[in-house]
Each structure stands twice: as structure tokens, then as C-alpha cells.
């Protein structure tokens, strides 16, 4: 089998290459800060799933969000779980799942490992089986944490008064001269 390659460029400096061979799915990021590099054994895969993440924003910002997704070419996610050395690992890759080269890579991966494919399942079930949270769930949990912090912080300020409703301190007495009565 000839290796199947899918490349994604994120701006002028960062490029990620996905290469599928019969033995491994190799992901390498060049440039940018950090990267989503991985070397995943195909035989060790316990599951994989691809999900579209197109913007569902309405209102004046929707065009900006969709345009930024088009520039970044990150309209979806590939989620992979595998075992290596007795340790279960999982990785989420943001990429353009509608690109012809990725569709070919995913089809070949599904042909090689039909038992690990979770593409036939609903998104929530596939995320549960892979042991990852969906993007929507991560946003909801993050918002709940932020709101809880704001609520607790506001309650603490209300209890201690926050310095707003304290009576003014009386001015200290004026210094007196020695000997003056």
C-alpha cells in the first residue's frame, strides 16, 4: 500500500502532515508553537471518529467565525484512541475533514480497521466510547466553572461588604501644641 498523505497549513508558518501507512498513522507538525505530533500504531487503535465542527453561530459575528474557520481549515476533528505499552492514549486533531485527501485517508483507515471505526455511531456515543468530551460539553463545563467563580466571588464580596457600605472613619484628632490650652 502506498502511504496516504493529508496536509493542512495553518497560516504561513505552521503545517501538519498526516501520513497513513499499514503500520502507523503518523502526525507531524512543523512550525508554530507546540504541535499535535503523534505516532499511532494502526493495529493498536481501539477507536476513531471524525466529526464536523462547522460554525453554528448566528448574529453579526457568524460571518467572522466562519471566515476564521475557512482560513484555519479546521472545520472538524479526528479523534483517535489507542493502546501502547498497556497505556490507553487518545488524541484530538483539528483539521479539514471535507478535504479529498483526508476523506481518502479516513476511508483507508476504515478499510484497514473496520472494528475500530466509530463513524456509524452518533457523536455523543462515539465521544463516550473514546473517553473524550465533545466540544459542546467542554464549552458548557467551562462556562459553568466561570459562572460559578463569578457567583462565589460576588457572594464573598457581598458578605464582606467590599468596602462600599462601610461608615467613614472619624478623622484623627488634630495635633495640639505643647503648653497650649
In CATH's first tier, which class of the largest domain applies? Mainly Beta
Computed over alpha carbons, the radius of gyration is: 27 Å
Which term fits the overall shape?
A: elongated
Question: Are there runs of 5+ residues with pLDDT below 50, and where?
Answer: none
Classify the beta-strand content into a percent band. 25-35%
| Order of strands, widest sheet | 1-2-3-4
The CATH architecture of the largest domain can be named as: Roll
How many independent structural domains?
Answer: 2
The amount of helix comes to 25-40%
Number of helices: 4
The CATH homologous superfamily of the largest domain: Pleckstrin-homology domain (PH domain)/Phosphotyrosine-binding domain (PTB)
Alpha-carbon distance between the two ends: 107 Å
Give the structural class.
Answer: alpha+beta
Largest sheet: 4 strands, antiparallel
Mean pLDDT level: 78
Number of E-type strands: 7
Write the CATH fold name of the largest domain: PH-domain like
Give structural notes.
This protein starts with a strand and ends in a 21-residue tail after the last helix. It is built from four helices and seven strands; from the N terminus they run E-E-E-E-E-H-E-E-H-H-H. Strands 1-2-3-4 form a four-stranded antiparallel sheet, with helices on one face. A three-stranded antiparallel sheet has the order 5-6-7, with helices on one face. The protein has helices at residues 62-72, 100-112, 123-130, 135-160; strands spanning 4-10, 14-20, 24-30, 38-41, 45-52, 76-84, 87-95. It folds into two domains: 4-132, Roll (PH-domain like), CATH 2.30.29; 133-163. It has 181 residues and is of the alpha+beta class. The mean pLDDT is 78.
